[in-house]
Amino acid sequence: MKVLIITYYWPPAGGPGVQRWLKFVKYLPGYGIEPVVYIPENPTYPLLDNGLLDEVNPDTTIIKHKIMEPYAWAAAFSKGNTKKISSGIIPNKKRQSVLQRLMLWVRGNLFIPDARVLWVKPSIAYLSAYIKQNNIDTIITTGPPHSLHLIGLGLKKRLGVTWLADFRDPWTTIGYHKELKLSASAEAKHKALEKEVLTTADTILVTSPTTKKEFEALTSKPIEVITNGYDVEKIAKQPLDEKFSIAHIGSFLSERNPQILWESLAELVSDNADFKAHFQLKLIGAVSREVLDSINKFGLNPYVNNLGYVSHSEAVIQQRKSQVLLLIEIDSEETKCIIPGKLFEYMVSERPIVAIGPQGADYAEIIKQTNTGIALNYSEKEKLKQSLLGYFDQYQKGSLQSYAIGLQQYSRKSLTGRLAEVLKRQ
Questions:
Q1: Alpha-carbon dihedral sign for residues 256, 225, 15, 39
Q2: Best CA proximity match to 248, nearest among 210, 195, 304, 206
Q3: How confident is the model at residue 255, as a pLDDT?
Q4: What are 377's strand-pairing partners?
Q5: What one-character DSSP code corresponds to residue 29?
Q6: Helix (H), strand (E) counts: the chain
Q7: Mean pLDDT computed over every residue of the chain
């Protein structure tokens, strides 16, 4: 069985967006499915990780076609702002410059559903010929960017191929959507396109139960939940940090700025001399100005080890070296469906997770079921402090570790097996 996978993010792209389909492509041949990957020839990736190129099977067929990207043009005026916005880091409204507000308005209202929409028509034309010549009858599109689903929509209408639309994140309810300064007509167009994709695709793939429930209100098509997962990493056992390191790995956006955490840490540093002597806040990845300002406001700067963006392999090493791992999600109804990809790597690191997010978040149930840490909401400050003190006590005794259960269901190989079953039912 041959399947065409249409994706924007592919090595050397860095960040979480590349991992899902890089791993599916890695394991699909073992289930009797040959993946053909379609990617842009000249993409504008906000993050690069050349180490991921080594994970691409040299036998995988990869086809490319040129893309015109507004982000490439915008970089000529403001490279820094362009890079931040394209990677989802949107400044706080009160701190947005005139240029930033203009860029967000243009991004939201002139390029619908997103800035990669100019790749849609050329890709439909190019892939129509390729699909016919190579006898492909099943395609998969993965978003964001959700403009890639419009490629699938066009190919479905033109050729009648079987089409699976994979949503790594929601479309009109994703956290940053309301920050795009959308006009009423632009908002209506987003919703119309979303509904057309959901009602035209043969099967919808989502990463969380809440997104499935949301989409069931919009379509009667089959919806399958296949979460992200972890892969077997060939990394030697790491010595733990000597400090009581509490590490956040990944983009730390301004909307995820957890005042409850900074207050708790500041009070623990003030009230507990041992905690003060051993504590370290480790930040790995892009961190917004608002988060850094809050850390400074609470007097935590002396305890910060800010490593910036690192390769995926180095991020995994840092996960396994850290004493405690932080998972922070925006406190809103829209983010209950978000299950960050890093959660699954966290779970196999044998380090306890402290998660802070909305009440009823999908990831909280996974953490509970796998016994990999604690999941709190933004009103549970005292519980957070007590949990951190409990982990600190175990750290001092040399016994701090998580004891996970039932993780195999989240291995990339097992998840690919579930994907293969879905594909073979089409």
A1: negative
A2: 304
A3: 83
A4: 357
A5: G
A6: 16, 13
A7: 91
Where are the chain's structural domains?
2-68+113-229+411-425, 244-397
244-397: same fold as 2-68+113-229+411-425? Answer: yes
Distance CA 204, CA 212 (A): 9
Alpha carbons 176 and 193: distance in angstroms, whole number: 18
CATH fold of 244-397: Rossmann fold (3.40.50)
Residues in the chain: 426
Residue 81, pLDDT > 70, answer: no
Dihedral angle computed from the Cα positions of residues 165, 202, 225 and 112, in that order, rounded to the nearest 10 degrees = 30
Give residue-wise pLDDT tens across range 117-146.
999 999 999 999 999 999 999 999 999 999
Give the rounded distance of the alpha carbon of 134 from its chain centre.
32
Give the pLDDT confidence score for residue 95 in this predicted structure: 61
Whether the model clears a pTM of 0.90, i.e. scores above it, the answer is no
Asked if 340 and 311 touch (Cβ cutoff 8 Å), the reply is no
Dist. CA 234–CA 350, nearest whole Å: 15
Distance of alpha carbon 207 from alpha carbon 422, whole angstroms:
14
CA 232 to chain centre: 19
